[in-house]
Structures are given as structure tokens and as C-alpha cells.
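User: Could you check the structure of this?
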Amino acid sequence: MNDGRKRLAEIATRSDEAIDLAEAGLCIAREEYPDLDIDAYLHQLDELGIAAREHIQPNLPTAEQVSRFNHFLFVDKGFSGNSDDYYDPRNSFLNDVIDRRKGIPISLSVVYCELAKRIGLPMRGVSFPGHFLVRHIGEPEIIVDPFFGRVITRKECAQRLSNLYGERARLERRMFEPARPRDILVRMLGNLKQIYVERSEFERALACSDRILLLNPEAPLEMRDRGILYQRLECFGAAVRDLQRFLDLAPDDPTAQTIRAAMPELYRQAAQTH
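Assistant: Sure, the predicted C-alpha cells are below.
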């Protein structure tokens, strides 16, 4: 287990309130960059926070504070969504996001919230369907889309939802609830895993799955996915263990019947490798 994985494993034992999203996100990146200096990047975020504070007066109305912070982050510092190469894995690594000033909604939201925390703005990420957002906690309600670098309205959120799921889709309160740090990290790793699967980089995808299960050990669908990755890598014994555990945890899942039917052949392949 490399140092980044060990540090993430330690973070996974903490309560959600004690998880530092920036630290954990950089631990994820260290899997790809073994020499990454996590503390140096945390210091960079501290320095950005100090610079942002100079632009924001705490006695200003909240909406004005958010407006000035947005200008600092998206105009002065040039953070933006990478619409040219959305599926570049670097968009999910916080060191790359900080260095390149480009990311995807969730990684930019992590940077946004971590800097907002440093200047006393209570902003939290929300798992809005299809596109991660940031919301001010308290009054007034302010929703920010860090990918496009601007405040958006509930009406715009409703339109996005309609575009995804049809005109009958309706906004629900849960869509704007603050996401738990653990869930944000799982979603970041899930995005990376999907990119690697589509590239047939199964060992990297497996590493993502391993870390998701560090954060959420009894996630049946992740146990299933890791088992399938083991199978693709011809690690049949490990595949059997994960897929059997998935069946134990979620026997009525829609995919369980297909997995159950494949198990005899997997057992045979596992036996042949010993």
C-alpha cells in the first residue's frame, strides 16, 4: 500500500466532520503521482485563501461576498471547467486542478468549498443530478456552478433537471442537501474509475474501486464492480470473493441473477489457477 493509500485509509476512519476534503482529494491524486507533496498543495490552498480574503470584507452582504469570491477565483485566478477535454483524468486530481486551473464540476467544487472555508464563507457541495454544484448554507440561498464560474438560479436548476429526465422531473429538497465529504470522495473516485474502464485501464480502475471500498467497505455495488474488474484482470479467486460478497449483501439486486449464473464458471477458473 503506497503512502497516499495509507493516508486515505487513515482518513477513512474519521467521522465525516473530521475529513479534510482537500487532504483526502490529494491522497487520491498521490496514487497517480507517488512523489506528490500533499502538504505543499494544502499550503497553496492556504495561500489562495489569504489572497481571497483581501478581496472580501466580512461586513458585506453575503451575496456580495460570494460575488467577489467568484470574481477572485474564476476571473483573477482563472479556474474554469475543462469543456475541451472533460474526461481527462487530470480533471479529477486536485494537484492538477490547482496547477492547471481546470477541472470538472466536483473537483472544482472541492477547491471552491475548501477556499470558501478558509475565508469564512459557509459553502458546501451538493450532489445535484448530473452536475455537482455548491450552495451557500443559510440565508440567502445562493447556488454556484463552479464549472461555468457563476451563480445560478433554481429556475436554471429545474431546466437542467428537465433536460436530463424530461418535463415531468421536479426539483426536490434532497437535491440541494449538503453532500457528505465521504460521498464526495466516493463520487470523485467513481468518475475516475469510469474513465479508466472506458479506456480499458483496468488496473487503474481497480485501484479506484479499492479506495472506494476503503471509504465505504460494505457498498454492494462497488463490491460487484471490483469483482468484475478482478475477473477482467484474470484474478479469479479475488473475483469470486467479491462477487460472492455482493450476492450476500444484495441478493435481490437486478444484476444478482446474472452474477449468480456466472459463478460456477468463475469457481472453475479460480480452481484452475491454484
